[in-house]
Structures are given as structure tokens and as C-alpha cells.
């Protein structure tokens, strides 16, 4: 595996590969890698000749400076995991490398995606996400980019970036990876105690309930039932739970058979913000 820490070195190496018509996949991460990330890389290896995994804790997408400070950065372990699955390239730049000028101007019209759910709860977050992903797309020039379904709204935002900027990148969505009991894998799970992890399983049970009865029950009643599952567990603070159309993420009260739907859920357990979702069609 090749490790690069500067844009110039990575660009030069990728240029050589591109001359041989190799198909390049990009897997952007913020490190603290787990099985979910590794599955993305394994899937990327199936659809591309060369896989670039970027590890960069992007400061512009954090609303809370303390959250940025607490974000885990186990670099040595991350590299061992990448080498263990034969990732081709690891790109691990500094903040100064990716943002040589402080306060770089950036704004992308994200429409309603920036005003609902994560967009509303974390103002400016998706501007930061699209800013760094655009930088990575321009640097790596991937044929395909792999993202996990767990951050569903983010995927819709990245698709919007690709559409607005007319980028020749195919967005490949990989299913959410869960542990044996159903908890969506996340770097933030590291901050949960064993008891907290057990409580967090209620998120999966709640979403499964919605999935199971989506086409049978009244949606308002179904949402109430799903919330009850979370509240019965105790010590879970629900930030939002919504049943939405997939592209606009507009909340619905009736099923439109012409569209796809998704249940979105964010809740706090032991002071840790957990995000999950489930496709319903």
C-alpha cells in the first residue's frame, strides 16, 4: 500500500496510473476505521482497479469545536487495517495541506436538503462536507466514489454536488454495516459503554418496526409506535424520527407508490449522537 500525505505526490502517482487506463475508486473517510469502512473498500476493489482511501478529519463540517477535538484519530491502527485488506492507496493529509488558505469561500446550492433534518440540526455541516469532497474529487478524479448508506442524507447531498458541478463521478452506495444485533457500525460507538451499546439497539428495533409495517399501518401511528420503542428503552433522547421520500427527504404522511421512501433516525445515548436509517421499499 502506498501512503501519501501531500496533494502533489498523490496527483503525480495517480497520473501515472491513469495513463494505463486504470479505473480509480475513492473512499473518503475521517478515519477511526471499522468494519463498515473496510466493507466499503472491499466493495470498491470489486468495481475498480485502484482504491484510494482518504483519511481526513475535516474541520469545516463540525459545528461543535469540542466534537472535532474529541473525534478519534487512531492513525496507526487505521493504516494496519487498510494494509490488512490490501487497500492500494492511503491519503492522509494535514489540515494545512487541504486548506492552505484559512476561510476559503465555499457555497453550494443544496436546495431543501440543507434545510431539513441534519441540515437544520447542524447548520453549515453539509457545506463543509461538500467542500472537502469536492476538493478530493478534483484531486483524485475518481471514476467512482463509495459511500455508506448509514449517512443517507449525506449521500443525497453528494449526489447534488455531482449534479451541480457536472462531475464525471459515479456514486456507489453500499448498505449499512451492522453488528450481529443490528447496531449500525460507527466511529462514535467507541464512546459508548457496553450498557450504552445495548441501549442503542433500540434504534434498530424502532427502524425495523417501521420497515415491517410500512405498507400496512397509518404512517402517523407507525411513527408513534416506533418512538414508543425508543422511549421504553429509557435514557434515549430522540432528536428526530421521520418517514421521508428519498430524494428530497420531505416527510410524508401517505405513501406515494411512484417514489422511494426512507426512515431517518437520530438519537442520543450516553451523550453520543447516533444516526441511522432504513430504506422502506
UniProtKB/TrEMBL annotation:
GO molecular function: ATP binding; pantoate-beta-alanine ligase activity
Keyword tRNA processing: no
Residues reported in the UniProt entry to bind (R)-pantoate: 61, 154
Residues reported in the UniProt entry to bind beta-alanine: 61
GO cellular component: cytosol
Family: Belongs to the pantothenate synthetase family.
Record protein name field: Pantothenate synthetase
Organism the protein comes from: Sphingobacterium haloxyli
Encoding gene (name): panC
Amino acid at each position: 500500500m502506498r501512503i501519501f500525505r501531500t496533494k502533489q505526490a498523490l496527483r503525480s502517482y495517480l497520473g501515472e496510473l491513469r495513463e494505463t487506463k486504470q479505473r480509480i475508486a475513492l473512499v473518503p473517510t475521517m478515519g477511526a476505521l471499522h468494519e463498515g469502512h473496510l466493507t466499503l473498500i472491499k466493495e470498491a476493489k470489486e468495481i475498480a482497479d485502484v482504491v484510494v482511501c482518504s483519511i481526513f478529519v475535516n474541520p469545516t463540517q463540525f459545528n461543535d469545536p469540542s466534537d472535532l477535538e474529541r473525534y478519534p484519530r487512531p492513525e496507526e491502527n487505521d493504516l494496519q487495517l487498510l494494509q490488512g485488506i490490501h487497500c492500494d492507496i492511503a491519503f492522509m493529509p494535514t489540515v494545512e495541506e487541504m486548506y492552505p488558505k484559512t476561510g476559503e469561500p465555499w457555497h453550494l446550492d443544496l436546495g431543501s436538503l440543507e434545510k431539513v433534518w441534519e441540515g437544520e440540526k447542524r447548520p453549515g455541516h453539509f457545506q463543509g462536507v461538500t467542500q472537502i469532497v469536492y476538493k478530493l474529487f478534483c484531486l483524485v478524479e475518481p471514476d467512482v466514489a463509495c459511500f455508506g448508506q448509514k449517512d443517507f442524507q449525506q449521500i443525497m447531498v453528494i449526489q447534488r454536488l455531482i449534479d451541480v458541478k457536472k462531475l464525471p463521478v459515479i456514486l456507489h452506495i453500499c448498505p449499512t454495516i451492522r453488528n450481529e444485533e443490528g447496531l449500525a457500525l460507527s466511529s462514535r460507538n467507541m464512546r459508548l459503554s457496553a450498557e450504552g451499546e445495548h441501549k442503542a439497539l433500540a434504534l434498530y428495533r424502532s427502524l425495523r418496526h417501521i420497515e415491517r409495517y410500512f405498507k400496512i399501518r397509518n404512517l402517523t401511528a407507525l411513527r408513534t409506535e416506533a418512538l414508543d420503542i425508543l422511549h421504553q428503552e429509557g435514557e434515549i433522547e430522540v432528536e428526530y424520527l421521520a418517514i421521508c421520500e428519498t430524494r428530497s427527504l420531505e416527510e410524508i404522511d401517505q405513501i406515494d407508490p411512484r417514489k422511494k421512501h426512507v426512515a431517518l433516525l437520530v438519537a442520543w445515548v450516553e451523550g453520543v449522537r447516533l444516526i441511522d436509517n432504513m430504506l422502506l421499499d
